[in-house]
Each structure stands twice: as structure tokens, then as C-alpha cells.
Amino acid sequence: RAKAAGKSGYVVFDEAMHVQARQRLQLETDFRLAFERAEFLLHYQPIVELKTGKLVGAEALVRWQHPKRGLLGPNDFLPVAEETGLIIDLDSWVLREACRQLTHWRKAYPALDGLVVNVNVDERQMASKEMVEDVFHLLQTHQLPPSRLRLEVTETVFRSGRKHAEAQLDSLRALGVGLAVDDFGTGYSSLESFAASAFDALKVDQIFVRDLETNPRHRAIVRTIIGFAKDLGLLLTAEGIETEGQRQMLLELGCEYGQGYLFAQALPPDEFEQRL
Ligand code: C2E
Ligand code: MG
Ligand code: MG
Ligand code: MG
């Protein structure tokens, strides 16, 4: 049987591989074109004070309006962006667009004076030489108070060329922008390297929030992260809050801010405005 299936098995496998490779290549071609065609857009997920539900910020999350495949999320195209190095161009665009949008909102809604916009930055972008200068120029151009911008990076930033990354983070902090570790607790940074870094904020990963009420180990981890953040004077935001029970428990544990479907998903700018 193995013999009989073997030959045709290989043919099927080859074909599947071929189709996959072709799709991948198509995605890469489309991705390059997407810049010219202005197909990227940002959705904004509200970040709220857990106690009151008051809006304090928004996380910019990139989307791609693909001409054939519809609206794609980061998981559909970030791998290609990373492999091709185009993530640098994408993140530069995201940063520019988020600053433009924030500036627009600040002008249109004076009550949003304190609103902070969080932007995700790939570790490679974070390490690029132009990063500090780009951020500086954007703040200047838009006359934005630096504290209204917060950059989110995952812990992997500590992994590659640590000294360089640290210098880079210090320079960004010196500009006055906020720096948050995204998905905290899932990466590889030592607490020591983190404690010595310029980060002023942490985001508790949603895997710990998801089963907070049923998993005592995850609850212990969250409690520890909250204590750690408090002692170091860090701003703490919990991600992926979907239920009232999770919100209550996070409040009891002492977490001040959060985001998640319980409050709102990531929204197109016009829908975000309607919620204001
Ligand atoms: P992240 O920065 O940890 O963002 C949170 C993700 O969780 C977002 O997914 C968000 O839509 C989703 N989320 C929010 N609330 C809930 C909830 O209550 N339940 C669940 N199950 N999920 C929730 P999204 O938009 O698909 O983004 C995925 C990841 O892609 C982000 O994770 C971030 O690492 C990356 N990303 C997004 N935008 C950018 C960008 O502009 N540049 C870079 N380099 N990465 C980005
Ligand atoms: Mg994030
Ligand atoms: Mg996250
Ligand atoms: Mg993530």
C-alpha cells in the first residue's frame, strides 16, 4: 500500500508545495504593490481605565485591504513582511499614519488632549538607525507632546544586540515617548535586563488574562507582574479582556488599565470617533 500511495503521494505533495509557494510569491508581490496602492489602514482599539471604563488611549493595529482577499489582519501578512524586510517600510508608514490620525483627533476633539496612541514596532525597526530621528521629526512636524505616543515592542528586542537596543531605547525615552513591553511574560527577557531598561510600561499578554479565573498559576503570574510593575512604577495594561469576571479580577489584583473585546475591538477611525 505504501508503495502504491508513495508515488501519487509525492505528486500531490509536490503540487501542494507548488501552490503554496505560488500563493506566497503572489502575497509578496501584492504586498509590495500595497504601498503604492495605499491599501494599508489602521484600526484603533480603545484602552480604558478598568475601574471606570474611561477611555485613556488607543492601540493602532494595522490592516490590509487586499483587492481580492478582503480585509486582512497582521497574522495574515506580518510573516511575509518580516521575511522580506518590508516590515521596516510598513512600520514607518504605521508610525506616520498614527501620528497623523492622533493630530487630527486632537484638533477635532479638544477633550482628547490626554489621549495616548500606542504603536507596535518590530524589533528590527526599533534597532534601525533612523528610528529615533523619525520619531523626533514626526513629533516636531505635528507639534505632538511626546508623551502622547507610546511604542510597543516585544521582549525579543532584548535578544538581539542587547547593548545597541538599550541605547536606542534610552534615546527614545529621552525624547519623552512612552515605551511598553508588549505580550509581557511570553518572551525571553531576563527580569534583570528589563529592570535596567528604559521601558515605562508593560502589557500583560492575553494568554494569562484568558483563563485568569480558572487557572491559579496564571493568576499567580498576573499578580506577580502587577506587583513588579507597581514597585518599578510602570504603567500596566492587561490585554484581551473579554469578560466582566476578568475585569473584576484584574481590578482586585490591582491592575489599572486594560483593553479587550469586553470594551471594544479594534475599530476603523470613524467608528472609533463615534464611540467618543
Ligand atoms: P498585539 O500588539 O499584542 O495586539 C493585540 C491583538 O489582540 C490584536 O490582534 C487585537 O485585535 C487582539 N485583541 C484585542 N482584544 C482582544 C480580546 O479581547 N480577545 C482576543 N482574543 N484578542 C484581542 P491583531 O490586530 O490581529 O494584531 C496581532 C499582532 O500583530 C499584534 O499583537 C502585534 O504584535 C502585531 N501588529 C499589529 N499591528 C502592527 C504594526 O503596525 N506593526 C507591527 N510590527 N506589528 C503589528
Ligand atoms: Mg501591541
Ligand atoms: Mg500584545
Ligand atoms: Mg501579540
From TrEMBL:
Organism domain of life: Bacteria
Coiled coil feature spans: none
Domain spans labelled EAL: 24-276
Single biological process term from Gene Ontology: regulation of DNA-templated transcription
Name by which UniProt lists this protein: Histidine kinase
Residues of the full protein shown: 777 to 1052 of 1052
